[in-house]
Amino acid sequence: MNAVRPAAPQLADIEPYDPKYIPADIMISANENSLDVPLDIRRQIEHEVRRVPFNRYPDPLANDLRDMIAEANGLDRDQVIMGNGGDELLFDLALAWGGPGRTFLNLPPTFSVYKNNAQLTNTAIVDIPRCDDFSIDEDAVLERLAKGDIDYAIVTSPNNPTGDLAQATFVEEMLKTSDTLVMVDEAYFEFSRYTVRPLLDSYENLVILRTFSKAFSMAGVRMGYLLGNPRVIDEFKKVRQPYSVDAVSQAVARIVYQNRAKFEKSIDAIIAERGRVYEALGKLPGVMAYPSESNYILIRFDEDVDAGWIWQWLLERGILVRDFSRSSYLENCLRVSIGTEDENTRFLETLRDVLAQVGVAV
Ligand code: PMP
Known about the structure:
Blueprint: E1 26-27, H1 39-50, H2 63-72, E2 80-83, H3 85-97, E3 103-106, H4 113-120, E4 124-127, H5 138-146, E5 152-156, H6 168-177, E6 181-185, E7 206-211, E8 224-228, H7 230-239, H8 247-258, H9 264-282, E9 287-289, E10 296-301, H10 307-316, E11 319-320, E12 322-323, E13 333-337, H11 341-357
Parallel strand pairs: 1-11, 3-4, 3-5, 5-6, 6-7
Antiparallel strand pairs: 2-8, 7-8, 9-10, 10-13, 12-13
The structure holds 4'-deoxy-4'-aminopyridoxal-5'-phosphate (PMP).
4'-deoxy-4'-aminopyridoxal-5'-phosphate binds near residues 31, 86, 87, 160 and 213.
């Protein structure tokens, strides 16, 4: 058999994305919505999908969706672009604003996909780590931007996995400081009810990322979008895959978006449960929960408790959470998504049991 020549050199240090998504009774590891799309909406979706011609290419830009989203956000069609999940648009950002000789500003710990995309596109990465409480080191960010050599930056709000918001006043300072393209990743903004959307009216160098995967229960279908200035959106059109947003996903997303008001109740329930879980975690010895504006909570365990071991123990009892215990800045941390009331209760009870097991007085 012939040997194969090596792949591109920038791949050498890249680990394929592996969130250890193992089937379990209670799936609270991936910040999904534990509730699927409600039945009455699913019926409308079935009807809509039946009308999709499978033999024809889809509308490449999904203009019906662009129009709906533009209208809901007080924008025009040319200020919106759709993607195959937010993930595709994050990759497109690195393709369009990154590349050899260009630089990305990252604020770790944050969503790991940003760094991967920069590496894949041979983009230099400047890290400005968050402070000990995971708030953004705002002075350091502004100082670095002022040097003028950052091509794009990503600010995640609420941040994954730490749960905190970036304030609009700070984002505005970033936008004023340089012509760097600043993406504010609002994948979870429905759970914070906070957006920097008003800044779009004044700043050409802002672009906002959103997704249908979280609040709208659509992680399995793949639909994300950007809000931005038409000139920025035009650059994304150049790098995107022509038919990445397929006709079936477009049909599903149209119906879900038309029915978006019906998701408000489950968003409210998640926000209320987040408060309950945070409070309960605060009463457990040996753990420290970080306040969250999103649909997950980051937990750090005391040094004498091994978070990796707790992750395994929970999994053996049918509960899958996200293990960050070996990730930079997140030593001994787990992240738990907010599920249904029953799921959260089972998680809390099981965690209490395991802490008792390892000798932390409960
Ligand atoms: N941004 C952040 C911060 C995320 O956590 C995720 C999902 N894990 C995404 C973007 C992308 O989500 P999707 O591709 O499902 O739209």
